[in-house]
Design brief:
This protein has twelve helices and 18 strands. By secondary structure, it is an alpha/beta fold. It folds into three domains: 108 residues, 3-Layer(aba) Sandwich (Rossmann fold); 229 residues, Alpha-Beta Horseshoe (pyruvate-formate lyase- activating enzyme); 60 residues, Nucleic acid-binding proteins (OB fold (Dihydrolipoamide Acetyltransferase, E2P), Beta Barrel), CATH 2.40.50. Strand 12, helix 11 and strand 13 form a beta-alpha-beta unit. It starts with 26 loop residues before the first strand and ends with a strand. Its main location: cytoplasm.
């Protein structure tokens, strides 16, 4: 049983691999860093390899080669990626690098010249070519059959569903469009076909992800509707699984999705990257500077669906951020009363235009503002969770251990939000089961309850 808050970094997903292998089967290991979008890339690579007869190893010693899927969003994430590559080289020796940091091959080979190959994000064919060169396939036609469903790096009862690649925004602190390109939405029928297969395979929760979920389909020139995300959300909601929306920019048309949440077709949950609240800070970020109208939108969402849960991330210490601008952010947070909040201290990232901005904030001031921000966010979270004591709600079981079952409410996304713990009468519960509990205790980030 582990209590929150988590590290508040959305780029710390880890692969979970468990698979038996036949004797002599060529085997590949995977280290998957980065956000859930990268985790989906890892799943696709492993699914292709598994279909070619490769085994999947959960450790270095059991693998003939290792793929490291990297993150390059922040300098700290780049450093972690380089550390993971070094560890794989030391433990295994044969390492293929892919992912966002792979868009900078010289940066990687300058530190680790012994890597076998470096490919960029979602370059699946190049990764497969590198694996074939390092560890030739040797399938057994009587044993190694194309699996009925893809390789999953998450627990069996939930799965990320990536609906698009890339992003059309030009935020000065972000290099994602440089690494992953412009928005490229998957066809509606392809997303639905994947979602249907996942639900048929037992997935109880679909976590919809992209770089800009609310822009889904707006890159199609011949689309029938102006904003296809609403139709996609409605169709996903018809499959009988929980549907959770991540990375939703607060465009006006997002209001069209809220009735689906009020009707129970989509979870009443929005993950929205607000980033800041002061108009001048947002302007320097090259983001829409409409914090006051955003508050109006939040109120409109809550009027339609009073139970909606709002999560967001923010950046403090952005270049030029004054104490007045930061105080505006704190005041905005007081008014917005968001349910789930994460916060980054600004970091320079190679290639980001924000690096060249004047008036960078000293590190000690960043830390002080982060501490003050998180103190306020924690107080809001504590009050909101205390109000849930006595309520009855459905939860999904993630993990069952001797001392408790770790569950999540509809207000909690896996790994980044809180948990609800059941520590009595939990022994017969199973991961993926949805049960009804009454909340009887709350902390700053987590709940406890009993089965009813």
């Amino acid at each position: 049983m582990s209590q929150n808050p988590p590290d508040l970094r959305p780029d710390l997903a880890r692969a979970r691999i468990s698979e038996t292998r036949r004797d002599g089967q060529p085997t590949i290991g995977m280290v998957s860093l980065g956000c859930p979008k990268a985790l989906v890339d890892s799943e696709r690579i492993l699914t292709r390899l598994r279909a070619e007869g490769y085994g999947i190893s959960a450790d270095y010693s059991g693998a003939d080669a290792v793929i490291v899927n990297t993150c390059g969003f922040l300098d700290s994430a780049k450093a972690e990626s380089l550390e993971a590559i070094g560890e794989a080289l030391n433990e295994n020796g044969k390492v293929i690098v892919t992912g966002c940091l792979g868009a900078e091959p010289e940066y990687i080979t300058g530190v680790h010249p012994k890597v076998l190959a470096v490919t960029g994000p979602h370059q699946y064919e190049q990764v497969l070519d590198a694996v074939h060169g390092a560890v030739p396939p040797d399938p057994d036609p009587f044993v190694d059959l194309l699996p009925a469903s893809g390789v999953s790096l998450t627990p069996r009862h939930y799965s990320y569903l990536k609906i698009s690649e890339g992003c059309n925004h030009a935020c000065k602190f972000c290099i994602i469009p440089d690494m992953r390109g412009k928005l490229a939405s998957r066809p509606h029928r392809a997303v639905m076909r994947e979602a249907e297969k996942l639900v048929e395979a037992g997935v109880k929760e679909l976590l919809v992800i992209s770089q800009d979920t609310s822009a889904y389909g707006t890159d199609w020139k011949d689309r029938d509707v102006k904003f296809p995300i609403t139709d996609l959300a409605r169709d996903l909601g018809s499959l009988g699984a929980w549907v959770r929306m991540h990375y939703v920019y607060p465009y006006p048309h997002v209001r069209d999705m809220i009735p689906l949440m009020a009707e129970g077709k989509v979870l009443p949950y929005l993950d929205i990257p607000f980033q800041h609240a002061h108009p001048e800070t947002l302007k320097r970020m090259a983001r829409p500077a409409a914090a006051s109208r955003t508050l109006d939108e939040i109120q409109a969402w809550r009027d339609i669906c009073p139970d909606i849960t709002l999560r967001s991330t923010f950046i403090v210490g952005y270049p030029g951020e004054t104490e007045e601008e930061f105080q505006t952010l704190l005041d905005w947070l007081d008014e917005a009363q968001l349910d789930r909040v994460g916060c980054f201290q600004y970091e320079n990232v190679d290639g980001a235009r924000s690096n060249a901005l004047p008036d960078h904030v000293p590190e000690d001031v960043k830390q002080d503002r982060w501490d003050r921000f998180m103190q306020k966010a924690q107080a809001i979270s504590e009050a909101k969770l205390a109000a849930k004591v006595g309520q009855t709600m459905d939860v999904i079981v993630d993990l069952v251990e001797d001392d408790a079952a770790t569950c999540r409410t509809k207000a909690d996304a896996p790994e980044i939000d809180g948990n609800l713990f059941v520590d009595e009468g939990h022994e017969a519960l199973q991961p993926g089961q949805i049960v009804t509990v009454e909340v009887d205790e709350a902390s700053e980030y987590d709940l406890w309850g009993r089965i009813v």
